[in-house]
Amino acid sequence: MGTFRHPIITRAAIRTICSLVLPFVVLVAAHGSAAPPVQPAGRWPRSFVARNGATVTINQPQIANWPNESSVTLYAAVSYLPKNAARPTVGTVVVEADTAVGLRDRLVHFSRVAVVDTNFPQLPAADVSEIVTVIERIVPPEGRTVALDDLLAAMTSQPVVPRNAAGLKADPPIVFVSKRPAVVVNIDGSPVWRTVSDNPLQTAVNTNWELFKDAKTTTYYIRDGRLWLAAPTLMGPWTRSAAPSYEPAAGGQRSAAKPAPPAARGATGRAPAVFVSRQPAELIVLDGEPIYRRVPGTASLNWVSNTDSDLFREGAAGTIYYLIAGRWFAAPDLTGPWSFATQRLPADFSRIPLDHPRSHVLASVPGTPQAAEAVRLAQAARTARVNKKGLRAPAVEYDGTPTFVLIGDSTVARAVNTDRDVLKVGTRYYLCADGVWFSSATPTGPWKVIGAVPGSIYQIPPTSPAYRVTAVSAVEDYEDWAVFETKPGYSGTMVAGGTVVWGTGYAYPPYIGGTPSDPTYFQRPVTYGAGAWYNPWTASFGRARVGYGPSPSADLSARLYERWDPRLVQPADRLHESSGTAGGAVGTTGTAGPSVPAGTTGVATPPAALSGGESLYAGRDGSVYRHRAAGWEKLQNGNWIGVRRASANDAPILRQLDDDAKTRADASVRRRVAVSVRDDWGVRAASYRPSAAAGRPVP
Q1: How far apart are CA 220 and CA 235, in angstroms?
Q2: Mean pLDDT in residue range 472-483
Q3: Dihedral angle at the C-alpha atoms of 630, 632, 635, 637, nearest 10 degrees?
Q4: Mind listing the pLDDT tens digit for each residue in 166-192?
Q5: Cα separation of 159 and 669, whole Å?
Q6: pTM of the full predicted structure?
Q7: Which of 5, 181, 541, 591 fits 272 for a cystine, CB–CB 3.0-4.6 Å?
Q8: CA 12 to CA 158: how far, in whole Å?
Q9: Residue 569: in which H helix or E strand, if any?
Q10: Chain segment 373-387, per-residue pLDDT in tens
Q11: Pair 101, 538: CB distance under 8 Å
């Protein structure tokens, strides 16, 4: 009997074990082994059956820290009920694990789980070892999760250290303003026209809209859904029109010459204003004159309520603030001129209520808890294990002979005539595709997955369109597998000035090649021209709802690793989708015995059963605690004893327990709000806590 301190397991040892065990686990899954059911991430406690038949019940963990947004330390009260026994024994564990954030289901997934400390004074070492085995090896991957909102609530009071990307730009874009429906046609440089034989209608390949030109009449056309607009010059004026004689099919792909269908000719609706720009431009559409409404709780901050744009103003005639792509710009009025203003926002911005219709802008206000939360998620890497021998690289196509150009003063050269990220270092070629690195002796392959990347690649500056590949790192390398970490910067979400932003701010020139009649166009990463706005519920940037092109409103950030075969690429936050159980775990949802009667402060109470409805906490001193109306009680020698705050030894522990209890309550609220947003508001909610008064967002 006595306290058993489980030896600390090194990360290197855990990695070695994982490299040997995981391929076997996946092989078992491929033959149809199903993981046992477990409770949802927000439902605690969770029970599992150990190898010896005992039931191990894990109470809701208390998250201590999340350093570098990649690994977590947590404490948990755990009960152990031997087979055929009437009463459990309760103790505590300290666990370390690597983390992967799953934004779709708002879960944090644990891997490389290691129990680094235990305290079970009444259990023999063999039983403690069973508890450790359950936590480290038997709990299936889908059971090793906590709700993302639980973790974020625990981190609210802890400072975050922004790892700001150096060298990003914050020059204001061109901003068009319209007081009626409008569209902005962003052309990537001069129009590049594609033609087909026997058809005078040409289509522009380097624009966000379906833009056409009749080569015979030199008339320009735009199709906005079922409505056609025409103009004698590219810059307008644009007016309602019948469809061109040779109508193209949807998406800019021309069909055979045929008259326009009656629906297109007879389309109704007011023609929108059209703004054309040869460099990325943004659009503010107002429904008439601006309508200013005071933001509750602020001294003089108004928001413009009759626009989808994030537009605010100090007072009725003060400075106007416009948020786009995570960057604030200010102007004396809507006509400009605009200047970067993120670091000089009035204090009122930090007082925007969470249930305000535009409270998502708090993620872009430096110093707010919401900005810190957004930074944490933007710095959290997505991790995946990649089968080096089985995964095949995507095809790399060049416009002619592969052409490489050195990046600045570096020794790294970039392929300029392909839409893939292909680099040359020395005599080797490197391809980064969807979070995986490949290498080859030639620019055309064959490509093989690699587990080590030249350090010079990570010196690529933001001035290069290849900058995004610096967010993908090979962190482990085995004979058959490599492990990659990818930061959201690969998809465009970056940290600058203590907030999240979209894109580097640079307007990279596109690649134009091919022939005059059949040009090749490769777009480079963009910052402006999509109405990018931060969605706190997906921790990514979405594109504007209207005015920026016919493409559907969707997240700008691609879902990383999802295009790969899950048998060959196993993201840590989706491991449960393809793996079976690593042991004989049996999930249970019932309690391990009768409920515990309420204790009285200072009076010992038998513990009876300590799972089910009981809410237990692990103290930093290794003891088990629970909270009652009269205060905190500690489990000591099998009895509950009231704890006094006056004690110098107990006071710091109680303060920590108070924080943990508040975190649980806050997390519960956050989870309910998240469910409400997802079920009732959809993924485009622009508020942290939508309310009926806030108004439902446009779908």
Answers
A1: 9
A2: 95
A3: -70
A4: 999 999 999 999 999 999 999 999 999
A5: 22
A6: 0.84
A7: 181
A8: 28
A9: strand 569-571
A10: 999 999 998 889 999
A11: no
β strands within 407-527, DSSP E: 412-415, 421-425, 428-433, 436-440, 448-449, 472-477, 481-486, 493-496, 499-502, 511-514, 519-522
Q: Is 437 exposed, middle or buried (0-12, 13-18, 19+ CB in 10 A)?
A: buried
CB atoms within 10 A of CB 313: 20
Which residue reads 């905190």 in tokens?
Answer: 632
Say if CB 484 and CB 473 are below 8 A apart: yes
CB 370 within 8 A of CB 554: no
What's the angle, vertex CA 419, arms to CA 415 and CA 425, rounded to 5?
25
Query: Which structure tokens are listed for 665?
Result: 């309550």
pLDDT band of 8, cuts 50, 70, 90: very low
Residue whose entry in the numeric block shows the structure tokens 């219709």: 357
Residue keyed to tokens 């010196």:
459
Q: Buried b / exposed e across 167-191, counting CB within 10 Å, b at 16+?
A: ebebebbbbbbbbeebbbbbbbeeb
Question: 536-588, pLDDT tens digit by residue?
Answer: 888 889 888 789 988 666 678 767 888 899 999 998 766 544 333 333 333 33
Residue 328: CB atoms within 10 Å: 26
617-to-75, 90, 634 alpha-carbon distances in Å: 8, 11, 9
Q: 182-186 and 273-277: which strand pairing?
A: parallel
Q: Which of 697, 387, 369, 406 is nearest to 545 (CA)?
A: 697
